[in-house]
Amino acid sequence: MVNLREQLSNEIYGNNAYIEKIINWLKNSEKTEFNTNLFDLEVSEDKVYIYSCLIGNLDPDTLTIDEFYNFLLNCRIA
User: Going along the chain, which residue ranges are E strands?
Assistant: First the structure.
């Protein structure tokens, strides 16, 4: 099975400005969806869903909002 979380990490790792953009989306949640080059991110009240834009009909990788926030922080370069 494809690990969407790992692939998303590969796409955004070290791009601190882009990661901040995703964090701001997560905090504001004005829109329920955020699109990267390869992934669609959706947020509900307590979960974030990672969908692949390239592979259709694949179950999303699901994280709690706190888990996703920590995932984003781990993708940043200090």
Answer: 33-35, 39-43, 47-52, 61-64
- At 9-59, the pLDDT tens digits run 999 999 999 999 999 998 886 778 999 989 999 999 889 999 988 776 678
Structure tokens at 45: 């009240």
Sign of the torsion angle spanned by Cα atoms 59, 63, 68, 70: negative
Tokens of 17: 């400005």
N-terminal to C-terminal alpha carbon distance within the chain: 31
**Contact by Cβ (8 Å): 74, 62:** no
> How many other C-beta atoms can be found within 10 angstroms of the C-beta atom of residue 48?
23
Closest to 66 measured CA to CA, from 47, 42, 43: 47
